[in-house]
Amino acid sequence: MKHPEQATLALHAGGDLGWWSARKTARHVARCGECRDEVAAYEGMREMLPELNQLPGIPWNRIASEMRANIRLGLVAGECVRNAETAVRETPFFHGARTAIAMASVVALVVTGLALVRPVPSVMASGPMVETTADGIQKRAGDQGFALMHAGARDVTYTVGAQGTMGARYVDPTTGYVTMTKVYVE
């Protein structure tokens, strides 16, 4: 049988346990004579405690009244400090400044988000360039161009290489063959 801890028995003797713990401990104490004796000893000690208040040489009543006065003084001082802090925070300037800072932060966040979602296109390269169009891939250099068309093709897959290549893969609608084109920029 597992016995409750000494602290639990002492709290049970004083009636200071929570509802569930008190119920469990009472059930155990009802069945265990050893724990019942411990609880009786703690109850006897509790009956003797009021007599300790009158020990000669220790002014318990004066100490208790000083403690109460110090607690009251601390509560009053806390109220004074709390009122001063509240007065500074509730001024319209601080309220308006916080609102302005919050709105400026939201605007900055939205502008940054828009700039990242829709980046500004970079300046067009002056040399040859490969790009996709609605009907194919084309290579342009200035006002001249060359295009590989795949008109009418569906499900076109484009590939782009880091060295300036672009490719397209699709099923030719007239022949049914897979066609792959690749254009290089030099």
Could you give a short description of this structure?
With 186 residues, the protein is an alpha+beta fold. 53% of the residues lie in helices and 20% in strands.
Structure description:
- The protein is of the alpha+beta class and 186 residues long.
- It has 3 domains: 6-52, no CATH class; 91-120; 129-184, no CATH class.
- The protein contains 5 helices and 6 strands; from the N terminus they run αααααββββββ.
- The protein has a 3-stranded antiparallel β-sheet with strand order 1-2-3, with no helix packed on it.
- The mean pLDDT is 80.
List the helices and strands and how they pair.
Elements: H1 6-14, H2 19-31, H3 33-52, H4 60-89, H5 92-117, E1 129-132, E2 136-141, E3 144-149, E4 154-160, E5 165-171, E6 178-184
Antiparallel strand pairs: 1-2, 2-3, 4-5, 5-6
Specify Rg, calculated over alpha carbons: 43 Å
Strand runs, count: 6
Question: How many structural domains are formed by the residues?
Answer: 3
What percent strand? 15-25%
Average pLDDT works out at 80
Offer a few descriptive terms.
20% strand, 6 strands, 53% helix, alpha+beta, single chain, 186 residues, 5 helices, 3-stranded antiparallel sheet, elongated, 3 domains
